[in-house]
UniProtKB/TrEMBL annotation:
One of its GO terms (molecular function) is 6-pyruvoyltetrahydropterin synthase activity. It comes from Guptibacillus hwajinpoensis. This is 6-carboxy-5,6,7,8-tetrahydropterin synthase. Its EC number is 4.1.2.50. Its cofactor is Zn(2+). The keyword Disulfide bond does not apply. Pathway: Purine metabolism; 7-cyano-7-deazaguanine biosynthesis.
Length: 158
């Protein structure tokens, strides 16, 4: 395979028109991953997690939308802002049993709380009015153990 250096950088208005930036009218999901560190312990649990301990949690956020006039469905920067303001600012380097609502701080409980917070933020930022919606959330408690939540499960409530 040979590699070539482009002879000319594409210029908007000359080589491509603004009307060509939107290639399709499909819903597309974009995903961004984040980490935060926090401590917790579980109640009514006989095992290591009974004692206070910490994790480097990984949160994988997937939001979908229809592409706008320049071909973007959801700006990655907006997802980062949502995470920082809605999740990270409340949980990073905190004792989860103290900062979350009364619940056992299992990944299964935490992910539903996170969904509710992110979904409300989408409403407050008028993102839902623009057709953007939370599709999937994954919360890793360890590199090999995680909880998953999908939009249809939150809507069906089964």
């Amino acid at each position: 395979m040979s590699y070539m250096i482009p002879k000319k950088v594409e210029v908007l208005g000359e080589d491509i028109q603004k009307s060509e930036l939107k290639y399709h009218n499909k819903r597309v999901a974009v995903t961004k991953e984040f980490t935060f560190d926090a401590a917790h312990h579980l109640h009514c649990y006989e095992g290591k997690c009974k004692s206070m301990h910490g994790h480097t949690y990984k949160v994988v956020i997937t939001i979908s939308g229809f592409v706008n006039e320049i071909g973007i469905s959801v700006d990655f920067g907006e997802i980062k802002t949502l995470f920082k303001e809605v999740i990270d600012s409340k949980l990073d380097h905190h004792y989860l049993n103290e900062v979350l609502p009364n619940m056992n701080t299992t990944a299964e409980n935490m992910i539903v709380w996170m969904w509710e917070q992110l979904d409300q933020a989408l409403v407050e930022r008028n993102m839902k009015d623009q057709g953007q919606r939370l599709e999937e959330l994954v919360l890793y408690e360890t590199p090999t153990s995680y909880a998953t939540l999908k939009r249809e499960w939150m809507e069906d409530n089964e």
